[in-house]
Design goal:
Structural class of chain A: alpha/beta
Strand content of chain A: 15-25%
CATH topology of the largest domain in chain A: nicotinate phosphoribosyltransferase
CATH class of the largest domain in chain A: Alpha Beta
Largest sheet of chain A: 7 strands, antiparallel
Helix content of chain A: 40-55%
Largest interface: A-B, 104 and 104 residues
Strand order of the largest sheet of chain A: 15-14-2-7-5-19-20
Number of domains of chain A: 2
Radius of gyration of chain A: 25 Å
Number of strands of chain A: 21
Number of helices of chain A: 17
Distance between the termini of chain A: 38 Å
CATH superfamily of the largest domain in chain A: nicotinate phosphoribosyltransferase
Mean pLDDT of chain A: 94
Oligomer: homodimer
Low-confidence stretches of chain A: none
């Protein structure tokens, strides 16, 4: 029981009016992203399972009802209705980790109108952020290439603790290898990883002693070499690597977190190779994103892996996704609004994918190719358990590295063209106005 | 008990090493924002009380410890140390809602080194986001002016449910009047507000019937007039306003959410005034931020209030704040790192404000003006209850509208100049290297 009060106030005032007016029949709402999304040639859908978990527990607690009563906006009949309210509807949705496009319905909720209306705020909140950050992560995966290891370093800049959990989950789903976020590791079974901080180095009288202590105390040490001077730090790391080798161990890697990362990484690689440590890995971090990783690689930077934080977790160049949740059908048939620039598709839709040509049509139409939406919740209960994230991640990585070049291209584009068409029946319905 | 596992993995591996190495004495860390912050002439500090609440409950639960044990990175002695660990330190901090600048220590934590280290992730996460969104909100308050009503409409685009709660709290602290977020209203005592959605209008056979129903069912109706055509919608609103007046009621307002808001608002005002309803308010929304509100006003737009969502809650033009938490002092004295471009101030510092000239010096120095940091937590307990948000909000609004023009200016600036100086003793210490 919970999350009911995470709702925009107007959902409740509208719901009370629906109850009074007898507008309590079934209604369908669709979640979709309006075209175009600048600088995104595709979206990676995510956030569904966390949402379904919220829907299964949706309801209003005693404290919620007491608070609402105190607002003096709601009558006893409506509060009694809320007290009993659970989400009992059907949800059709695209699978998490699917490559999708603006203009396509990604989730279709069918439920008694008040239920369908009241879940809007939390549905939009969870799907918009998870899809935003999964999409950003997918672009970073493409930029880093199939060989590179990617670690989510975003917790300290994400928008709250919960955001960091969503970011870890969505980036792993999109192909990242690990997260620094221990709570996310515990909760979702995501591998956790980390190196060391500047403050550790500064806690010792000198860098060499700090490196020795860390290498002694960590089974796979990655030494942060740039607290004072990165090349001198690398020579200290070499010294520790030699000492480890004498006792039968190997230094795992070194990390660079500042300065001209591409140039420094080549110098560090040369020092390590020259000293007989070609297997010591170089891990780089520091305000990275897909553009900076591409530039790093283009300039001959050498890295085994990347830690990506701030710009991943807040989706730096596009910090919000404008996904919307619109009434598409009720007992009077398909519905749509026609505000300037905000046209939506009417009716309960399906998406068929044939290669990378997507066709949006009405449920019941005979589409060509693979239908993307399936029933994931019936009567307010999930029809299956949570997805196996590790297995989905493998599928997603393979799909990303198989994208056609026109979609995999990461260069900025103000107005991307998406391969989405309407079915003849849907096209006719749309042209017909409301 | 909780939040312990919301930590970057390296905090734990470093902490285990500190324990083994006997580095368990007191250490001080400072939270500050490195200069410069593009497009921000000041910051509004926020997030402290939520952080202090987390620190009071900081610790590792059984499930956390079981998970950590399974990682095979930690020994029994360290896990036993974590099981007993609470935050027992001192926190000095600036008051929430204070106007502050990059380069100034905003929070100074002094605690046994392992405690001080382990709270880093959650401290940065909470302070960075709250200060980011409070700062964005303060700019929007300045743009809207002293007369305008501002409502937080961000829940559906914020990065998770928790982010939306922080956004509502921080924007209210910064001078907003209300939030649409019912849970935030319940939790923080923030006034809640809302209008109606396009889906409500579409749920009726026509707009006029929808308006009539809503006005009947809501004590202070604000009618959304742009589902189909905003001027026709306004005429429908006028008709409903006339019907309400016949029964002794008044229409509260109309809302515009799309199109050319400035031009439409003038046309809507003219229709309302011409029909004898000069007191009916115009509320505008739709991807607003400080720049768009300034433009709306400059173009003669007429609004009683603004709903601000996406661009507030994600701080659209600057979606992350690079606040850092650095070791500044331990039992060997003041500490600092010297990585290129990442220099930090050594020692436990205070900030003195004399007009809008700020001087950063060492605790114990005799500064001129008002000291900004005070002790807010001792022995891991808050020294006072949570701040009175409504009262702080009044103080903040007054401070914002009294800012000198050079700071209140909202125009973009790549490299703002901040009025922050170092005291002679701190200057000498900083010049002396590590």
């Amino acid at each position: 029981m919970g999350q009911g009060a995470f709702v925009d106030l107007y959902e409740l005032t509208m719901a009370q009016s629906y109850l009074r007016q007898g507008l309590t029949g079934e209604a369908s709402f669709a979640y979709f992203v309006r075209a175009p999304v600048p600088h995104r040639r595709f979206l990676l859908f995510a956030g569904l399972d966390p949402l379904l978990g919220v829907l299964e527990g949706f309801g209003f607690g005693e404290d919620d009802l007491a608070y609402l009563e105190g607002l003096r906006l709601f009558d006893g009949a409506f509060l009694a209705h809320l007290e009993r309210l659970r989400f009992t509807g059907e949800v059709r949705a695209v699978e998490e980790g699917e490559v999708v496009f603006p203009g396509e319905p990604l989730v279709v909720v069918t439920a008694p109108r008040i239920e369908a209306q009241l879940v809007e705020t939390v549905l939009l909140n969870l799907l918009n952020y998870a899809t935003l950050v999964a999409t950003k992560a997918a672009r970073i995966v493409l930029a880093a290439g199939e060989e590179a290891v990617l670690v989510d370093f975003s917790p300290r800049r994400d928008h709250g603790v919960e955001a960091a959990l969503h970011a870890a989950r969505a980036s792993y789903l999109a192909g990242f290898h690990a997260t620094s976020n221990v709570e996310a590791g515990k909760r979702y079974g995501i591998p956790v990883a980390g190196t060391m901080a500047h403050s550790y180095v500064m806690s010792f009288p000198d860098e060499l002693r700090a490196f020795r202590a860390f290498a002694h105390d960590h089974p796979q040490p990655i030494l942060l070499v740039d607290t004072y001077d990165p090349l001198q730090g690398t020579r200290h790391a070499v010294q520790v690597a030699r000492e480890l080798r004498q006792v039968g161990r190997e230094l795992f890697g070194v990390r660079l977190d500042s300065g001209d990362l591409a140039a420094l990484s080549r110098e560090v690689r040369a020092i390590l190779d020259g000293a007989g440590f070609p297997a010591v890995r170089i891990f780089v971090s520091g305000d990275l994103d897909e553009e900076r990783i591409q530039e790093f690689r283009a300039r001959g930077g050498v890295a085994w892996g990347y830690g990506v934080g701030t710009r991943l977790g807040v989706s730096w160049d596009l910090p919000a996704l404008g996904g919307v949740y619109k009434l598409v059908e009720d007992d009077r048939g398909p519905r749509r609004k026609t505000s300037p620039g905000k046209v939506s598709l009417p009716g309960r839709c399906q998406v068929w994918r044939d290669g990378f040509r997507d066709v949006v049509g009405l449920i019941g139409e005979q589409g060509e190719g693979r239908p993307l939406l399936s029933v994931v919740m019936e009567g307010g209960r999930r029809v299956a358990g949570p997805p196996d994230l590790a297995q989905r991640r493998s599928v997603v990585r393979e799909a990303l590295f198989s994208l056609p070049p026109a979609l995999a291209d990461l260069s900025p584009v103000a107005d991307p063209h998406y391969p989405v068409e309407l079915s003849p029946r849907l096209g006719a319905l749309t042209a017909g106005g409301r």
